[in-house]
Amino acid sequence: MSFLSVQNIVKEYSGTKALDNVGIEVDAGTIFGLLGPNGAGKTTLIRIINQILAPDSGKILMNGDPISSAHIGRIGYLPEERGLYKKMKVGEQVVYLAQLKGMQKSIAIEKLKTWFQKFEIETWWDRNVDELSKGMQQKVQFISTILHEPELLIFDEPFSGFDPINANAIKQEILGLKEKGMTIILSTHTMSSVEELCDNIALINKGQKILDGKVHEIKQKYSSNTFEIKCSGWFDAMASTLTHNYKILEHNKEGNNTTIILKLMNDIPTNDLIRHFTGLGNVISFNEILPSMNDIFIDVVGRNGEYIDNENSI
Amino acid sequence: MNKIKLIIQREYLTRVKKTSFIVMSILGPIIIASIFIVPLWLQKFESQQIKHIAVIDESRILMPTIKSTETVMFTDLGNTTLEDAQKTYAKDGYYAVLFIPKNILNSTAVQIFSNRQPDFGLKQYIAKLIEKDLETLKLLKSNVNPDLLKAVQTPIFVQTIKWTGDGREVEVTMEMKTIIGTVASMLIYIFIFMYGSQVMRGVVEEKVNRIVEIIISSVRPLQLMIGKITGIMMVGLTQFALWIVISFSVIWMAQVTLFPEPLAPTAANPTATIDSKVMAQVQALGQDDYQYAMDIFGSVSNVNWTIMIVSFLFFFVCGYLLYAAMFAAVGSAVDSESDTQQFIMPLTVPMVISLLMIQVILNNPDGSIAFWMSMIPFTSPIAMMARIPFGVPIWQVVLSSLILISTIIIMAKLAAKIYRTGILMYGKKVTFKELYKWVRYSS
C-alpha cells in the first residue's frame, strides 16, 4: 500500500477541467516528482492534497485513511508563491505558523532554536522579516515548512529564488529528509534536480497525467538504442565495416582514438556490436546514451500537445 | 477553534503593539476631552482678562447699583468730564468709558466710548445691566414695596425633564443631547470605517505577501477570515475602552484642577452709598447665569451613560461586522491596495450619506428620515447613535437590531464565498460580475 494514494481527482473551474481523472501513488520514504508545464494543473493538485481546495470528485488516502483536517499537522507545504508577514519578527512568525500546524508553542520554540543553530542564523530571531534578503527569507520558509516534522512534505518549486550554492544546500537537505524517512512530493521545472532527487515521477499536461513511473524505468523506456563507443583506430576503417544495422549519428577523432555515437536500427544484441568493434581495435569505453528527463519532458509534452490539438480540430 | 484563537491573538497583538495604535489611544481621548474642556477653559481664560470700564455717571444714581463681575470691573470716575476721560482712560488701563447721562431716568441711551470696537457680549451685558437697574430704581421710586418687588422679580429658569418608563426623571438639555448624538454618531462612523478598512488592508497584505497559501494549508479560509475580523474587532473595542477611560479621567482631572467650583458668581464690591437694600436686590437677580451653567453640568452627569455605552458597543460591533465582511471580500478580490478603490466607493456611500444626514436626524430624531435610516442596516448604526440620546422606542431598537443582525449573517456568507476564491486568485482584473460568479461557485 502506498503512503499517499491520490485517486481519480477531477476539478473543474467554470467549464474547464483543471484536473481530469488524475491519480498518483507515492510510496513512503521516496521523493515523488510532479512535473508538467505551466498551467498543467500541478498547483491545483497540490492544493487539493493540502485540502486548500476540495476536488469535484476523487479521493485521497494517507496511510489508507481518507484525508481530513486531522492530517494537516502531518503535512508540510512550501508553496510556489510564498511569503511571510513583513512586519513580524522571524522567530515569532515561524512559531506562529508551527502553532497553526498544531505544534505546542514551547516545543516549537525549542525546535526552531535548534534549526537556527544548524543554519547559523540565531541572530535573525528578533529581526523583522523585511530586514532579511530574499534568499534569507526563503531559508526561514524552508525551516518553517519542516519544523513540525511532517510525514509528508510538499515542495512547489523549492529552488526558485535560491542562488546555486543555497539551492544545492536545500537539495542536500531534501535528500537528508528522505533519509530520515519522510515522504516528499517535489514539483519543479528544474529537470536536473528531478534526475538527482526523484525516485518516481508523474507528468501532467493540460489536466491529465500523461506519464508516470520510476525515473530510471522511464529513461529506459525512452531510450533510443543509442550507444557511444570509444575505440582505437581510424573512423573510415570502422565505418566501412558497419552494416545497415547501425546508423552513425556522430563521430569524433581524439588522437589515435575515435568516439562514435550510433543507433541500433534493428533489435540486435549489444554484444554483437561490442564484438564487431573488438575486432577492429581496442575498445576503451562503451555506454548507452539515455535521454535526459529534460528531453523526455519536451518530447512527451510536445507530442501530447499536438495530439490534443488534433483531437480538438476533429 | 484553537486555531481561530491563535489567529485572533496574532491579529490583535500585532496591531496593539503598533506605535500608531498607542498614539491613537492617547490622542483620541485628548481630542474628545478637549471638545468638552476647551470651551469651558477658554471661558475661564477669557474671564481672567478683566475688562476695566470707567464710568462717568452724571445722574449720580446708577453707579452705586452697577456691580462688577469677574469679567467686567466698573470704576467710578466721579466728576471727571468726558473730555478728560478721553485723554487719560487708555493710560489708566481702562478698556472703555461708559457715559451715563444726567437724564437717564427719562432717557433710553447710554454711551460706550473706546478706541476699540467693544465686543457684542460686553454691549449686551451693559445694556441688560442698566436696563434692570433702571427698572428696579424706577419701581422703587414709585414707592413699590421692596418686598413686593423681590417677590415679583422671580427669575424663571426652564428645566427640561423627561419622564422615562420606570418613572425616573432624567434632566438633559436638548443642546447636550445634540452634542452627544453628534459625537456618538461621528465616533461610530470613524470606528467602523477605521477598523473595517483595517480588515481589508490585512487581507490584501496577506495576499500580497503570499503568506495566505501557507496559512490556509493549516486552517480553513473561513477560520482565517473569522479570526482576522474578530481580532481587529477586539483591537477596536480595546481602543474604545481606552478612549472612554482616558477621556473621562482627563475630563475629571480638568474639572478638579481647572474648575474647582464651577463658575460661581462673584459678589460685587459693595460700593453702595445709597440704598444698600436695592443693591442686594439687584444682585440677587444676577443668579440665573449661574443656574444655567449648573444646569449644563447637571445635564452631563444625568446623561444615561450606561445606555449610551452599551448601544455604542452593540452598534459598533454590528456595524463593524457588516462592513468588515464586505471589506474582507474586497480585500480578497484584489491584487494590491490601489485596486480596492472601485469597490470601496459603492461600499462607503451609505456610510457617507448617513454621516451627512446626522444633522437632519438630530433636528427631528423621531421623524421619518431618522426612522428609515435607523432601519436600513447599512446606515442604522450611525443613525441610531444620533437618535439614542433623545430616546428611541424599544420596538424600533429591536427591529433595527434584528434587521442588522440578519443582514450581517447573509453578508458574511456571501463574503466568505468571495474570500475563499479570491485569496488564491492572482493577476485577474476582478469586476462585480466576476465576484457574483465566485458567490455562485459551489464549495
Report on the architecture of this protein.
- The complex is a heterodimer of chains A (314) and B (443).
- A six-stranded mixed sheet of chain A has the order 6-7-8-3-9-10, sandwiched between helices. A four-stranded antiparallel sheet of chain A has the order 2-1-4-5, covered by helices on one side.
- In chain A, helix 2 crosses helix 3 and helix 2 runs parallel beside helix 4 (134-146).
- Chain A contains ten helices and 14 strands.
- Chain A folds into two domains: 4-220, P-loop containing nucleotide triphosphate hydrolases (Rossmann fold, 3-Layer(aba) Sandwich), CATH 3.40.50; 224-289, ACT domain (Alpha-Beta Plaits).
- Chain A is elongated, with a radius of gyration of 25 Å.
- The longest helix of chain A has 21 residues, at 293-313.
- In chain A, 36% of the residues lie in helices and 29% in strands.
- The relative contact order of chain A is 0.13.
- Chain A starts with a strand and ends with a helix.
- By secondary structure, chain A is α/β, with parallel strands linked by helices.
- With 443 residues, chain B is mostly helical.
- Chain B folds into two domains: 2-39 and 178-262 and 297-440, no CATH class; 51-146, D-Maltodextrin-Binding Protein, domain 2 (3-Layer(aba) Sandwich), CATH 3.40.190.
- Chain B contains 16 helices and six strands.
- Chain B has helices at residues 2-16, 19-48, 82-88, 120-141, 146-152, 174-209, 212-216, 221-258, 276-284, 287-302, 305-333, 341-363, 368-373, 380-387, 394-422, 432-440, and strands spanning 51-57, 72-76, 96-100, 111-113, 162-163, 169-170.
- In chain B, the strands form two sheets. A four-stranded mixed sheet of chain B has the order 2-1-3-4, with helices on one face. A two-stranded antiparallel sheet of chain B has the order 5-6.
- Chain B is elongated, with a radius of gyration of 31 Å.
- The two termini of chain B are 21 Å apart.
- The model of chain B is unreliable at 262-293 (pLDDT under 50).
- Classes of the chains: A alpha/beta (314), B mainly alpha (443).
- The A-B interface holds A 14, 47, 50-54, 69, 72, 75, 77, 79, 81-88, 96-97, 99-101, 141, 144 and B 3, 6-7, 10, 14, 205-206, 208-211, 213-220, 424, 426, 437, 443.
